## 1
Amino acid sequence: MAFTLKHTDPGSKARAGVLQTAHGEIRTPIFMPVGTAGTVKGVHQRELRNDVDPDVILGNTYHLFLRPGTEILEAAGGLHPFMGWDRPILTDSGGYQVYSLSGTRKIKEEGVKFQSHIDGSRHLFTPERVMELQRSIGADIIMAFDECTPYPCDYRYAKRSMDMTHRWLDRCMAHLEEAPPLYGFDQLFFPIVQGSVYKDLRKASAEYIANAGAPGNAIGGLSVGEPAEELYGMAEVVCDILPAEKPRYLMGVGTPANLLECIALGVDMFDCVMPTRNARNGMLFTSEGTINIKNKKWEADFSPLDPMGHTFVDTEYTRAYLRHLFAANEYLGKQIATLHNLGFYLWLVREARRRILDGTFAGWKSEMVQKLDKRL
């Protein structure tokens, strides 16, 4: 077994576990910083390792395929040595990126034809091709190729898309049997549940994915504009069906409050660009609420960025200084904010894990969610 379930919270469905991979163990629940193109934007790998300290980061097949390309990655020995990262990596298959290229792609049973957002060149992603690409990248966890439906989405389209995602899953698994890993270690394969916000489709997809018998399972097609209540409702439906002895990964989610609510439903793994993207726009997440550091109210606030001190930037820099950096459009401001947000997200899931293990998660979660949604 790659996954060991250590404890379940008595007041919720929250779980604490350990997922073993070729490049180390992942303690769940976990948040994965997004390193789309082989970099978490604005953060050195040394800072990522020593200060943020995530167990796993995420890369993206679509972006890495376009740049630097699999020829370079294979020559380097895979993404780990190429980017200088010796901990686990998960690669998203590119299904979401293809979804976001709605004006320049065509989806058929064979796969997806699309144009590069970089130079307009045309490419074809099939389930088989995407498996080959993820073999070349060499991530520890690789994802099935799926179609991510938009929100809102017509029921008939959602069902057709889900059925095709299931057929693509079968093709992915068949191809992996014929294409062994390239770098001498096993890659864990996760299929993806789809079905939009339709309960019967989500149930059917979760059952199909559960029966695939993969080392872990993912929930896709959420956090695409649906209300939070729909997100939680679909996550709960799926988590109640996916096997308890396998890790559950909710893709692309979300706010700090989203993470805690979904951990309470039984989700183990998360990724989202929000902590890094919002940081570059001056939004800081803290345990007391969110801060827009660009606001004038912080101009003469010489208190630490965050007294809790999740990373070194929280106590070495003041709110006034960070506001000045944003006002002056200095790159350092975005870097400081990014390190802070990533540090906070990792603290949040680690504290959630600690609370699950000692049986106090449910009460702590309720208190934290109230604070996290405040604007300071």
## 2
Amino acid sequence: MSRSTRIPMIACLLLLLVHGCTYASNVNSDSSYYVANGIISRQVLTNYLSRSITQAELIASEGCYNDGPYPDKEDDIRMLKNIGAKFIGRSVYSWGKENFYLMPSFWANAKAAIDDYHAYDSTVVFQAAIFEIVTEKVEDIPIPAWVFEAFDLPVEQRNFGYQAMLNSEGHLVDHWRKGSSVPDITQRETRLFFYYLARRYMEIGIEAIHFGQAQLMAMDDREAGLAAWKELLDKVRLSALTVARRGTIICDSHLPNGGMVLNGKLLFDYVSFPLRLKEVIDEPQKVELEVGYLDGIYQKTVGGITPSGWSCERSLYLVEFDNFGISKHRDEPNRKDHYAWGYDEITWFSKQPEGYRNEFLRYAHQWVKKTDPYGFLQMPGSRIITGAETNRYRANTQSPDCPTGKSQENTIKEIWKN
């Protein structure tokens, strides 16, 4: 057993003695959001996922936004407190803009935002994202000595290397555009860079990381890909024991095959995936959810031993309103693609009348809950949309403080309360 796996298991045994429970038992109400020493119990993870909301770039700051301005952010903080959110999804990230990582304000302002919120509720988890993209700008970032040390490598005075992160056979090179590729996780340089980002995020108070499309970055090399992801995640979790604010980092990825398992052990704490909306052909703009539709994740996650040491028949998972652009067949159905009436999921949702938006949230929450006890609906709070009068959907109750709000705030609060 390696050091990276031995330490969390020891910490887990200590926690079991303290709480007097087994892996499968529920924690008591006083510790419903308790995590420490690399361990999150099944019940606590359930508690967080059941109060999860996408709030893209909430703690990013001016000059560090990926998709344009983010006005009236103070009202988002008010909304999150009002509805009782506990897991703030995608609160900070960069999509191919590695120059952000060289800006002190990117880190300092995000840390200040986390600290301010934790003064109100210290149990709220903020999630960052490390996506399936790397650009030539990565070569401007010096590699700290602690990155080399974590991988037992000689310390060098050099920057990250873009070419060293790419697939040696050219797979997905320049995938996004020239000089912007999908990084290959089996390349050590990619793991060095991802470790750098994960630790920097933990240093500012981040307690969860979404690792984008992990399978895509494994480059279809199942054996090498699994081994590479395991090495990276083991090192990230080992670092979390001393760097993360509660000694714990919660990791997930979009995993269309339902999970990554190596020797019976799950690599990620939970799985996340798009909703996959099925168009109701004879009812324009209406959609439904269905087990087995396209590559939907419902009832498909795989089981094993979680990183925290408890067993599950199938992984817990979130389904979210994804964003990926709009098609050429707007307002027309096509069940052969992932669009809903020609739009990505959050753009479709934003286009609907207020009444149907609220109705759909209630329907989707109940459908997921009844269809699969391992699944949870991640509520839409703030996320980029395409081809609309504003650049992002906002769940806030519409008011002078948030004139672009779509007024799902009270519905989310009601769903969570009930």
## 3
Amino acid sequence: MKINALVAHDANAPLASAPITLRSVQHQDVKIEVLYCGVCHSDLHMARNEWAVSRYPLVPGHEIVGKVVEVGAGVTRFSTGQIVGVGVMVDSCRECNFCQAQEEQYCEQGFTATYNGIDRYTGQSTWGGYAQNVIVDQDFVVSVPDNLPLAGVAPLLCAGVTVWSPLRHFTVKAGDRVGVVGLGGLGHMAVKLASAMGAEVTLFTTSPQKGTDAYRLGAKQVVVSTDSEQMAACHASQDIIIDCVAAAHDLDPYLAALKTNGRLVLVGIPDTSHPSPQITPMVFRRLSISGSSIGSIKETQEMLDFCGQHSITSDIELLQGEEIENAFQRMLKGDVKYRFVIDMHATHW
């Protein structure tokens, strides 16, 4: 079936409206009318082939909120008219240990990405949410709480679950002291979610002007990481730190801010490697550095349910599809608080 989408035709051309062909609805498929799609920085990387893995034509978008308009004969979890979400994955091998444990993001064969992946039904590229519709296997679709503003839900499908997953995996609980490095799309969600869990949140930032916003979002303390006195004052104070910065930086100051047995979790992926940390304090204080990748479908549903209970959404700026190139330019300047979301109904095809 033909639909309209915002398509990247090569690494140098701006995205443009063009028709694409979706696969037919399979037995377990859900066809979704896209209402809103968040703009992740990875969309820009992929559109410009900055990771050297892009296949063109390419339709970005993996923070999708929409309405079910058709279901396959075998679909039992969703019905037409229901509001649902789709995140970074649309399939996996289903058979490996990680898939069997409901941790599809670590699928041993590699999960199928929502866009620029290989569709396991057709062998063709998957298309993302910068489009009128998507078709997704029901096992990779999640329900959206009906009390949340839908545009603000879209970034939860990537940014939200990316920070939720380590918070849950490492059993953050009320009263824990949680540090968050960086107040961007990921960081602002980490502050909101950890605060709602009852943790005492400290934001580490290079930008003192972000302090006011951090307190509004739920932080109890703001530390300017370039201020050596402020960093020294929070020595050995944090149970866990979620590092959301996607640029190479010195990890040692954040390791120093951890309590003995503390953990630094990296969710931002820099273009170049971080400098190697000092090993001696890690050994003598049993500190750990971990990574964490997005989140499972189960975690995504748990996160959405939690957000529904606590009325949490992303802080967003709404735009039309034809404004996407301007949004990309503003993202490069850090000029967004905190996530762009495309209103697909307002987009002129």
## 4
Amino acid sequence: MQDKINDIHQQIADFTISNKEQLEAFRIAYVGRKGVIGDLFDELKNVAQEERRAVGQSLNSLKEAAQVKFNEFQALMEASAEKSVAIEFDLTLPNVPFENGSIHPLTLVRARIIEIFAKMGFNVSDGPEIESDFYNFTALNFAENHPAREMQDTFFIEKKGGNVADDMLLRTHTSNVQIRLMQNQKPPLRSIMPGRVYRNEAISARAHCLFHQVEGLYVDKNVGFKDLKDTLYYFAKEMFGQDTKVRYRPSYFPFTEPSAEIDITCLICKGKGCNVCKYSGWVEIAGSGMVDPNVLEQCGIDSQEYTGFAFGMGIERITMLKYQIKDLRLFTENDVRFLRQFEGL
């Protein structure tokens, strides 16, 4: 037994360790419980009683020698690894000042819109951006041959053939959330639906293929056009200032009847006329109207008992008017010079 101990002492001394693989091999052979030293401890019970004490001391000394060598080279490997990944700093360089970021202007305006409508009792609803034709068009009273269904306006994902309502697309407005809300909840309903929408538009200073909308829906008994006017009148005053004037123009939408476009006095010229408002003194901010009875019935709501109004506006349009931004592309270009203008707002 003593001869084996002496041989393993020599093996430990001669074992070369220069990388992690060799260190692991050394651990398995000499430090681990199933290594050669562990085997010698298992054989200790076969040693004569009078020799067992001395042999046991030699085995403990051997085990300690193996552990000491392992710990030494493990520390060297760890120190080498830390040194290899250490980053050298040039302490002569000037300090980089810590700068606070700012909230994106679209996020600021979205939060303000939600705040204003929350004061009037509107909650916030959300829905999928990848939608079926049924929720995006059919349930909203769009005829099958309506131009908005054509590829130049809508990003279709899958044309399933047969029933057009089964086609899949990127939603072109957040009206799909209105349909889902009316299907899943009973009146009274009072909610706004902010979110991203997509249309196949040429990108320019006034248009983009991706933008943000916020739509609103109010369905209850005895809801009239006056309720719609009062709601949007209050919104315009809160968003743009108490001096803002509001104008309603007759319009057409498949899902509302009667329908109206909403204009406010130009914030640049204060209604006097300039190139921004095309010298009319007015700029459009939203479309609106009373929910068509066909839409209510499609969602399982009795149009003889309930009425409602809906409206929709582009968050980019509201932001451009509020902060007098003239190029829509600035919102998505991540130009720090543009974004820093909104620090502290």
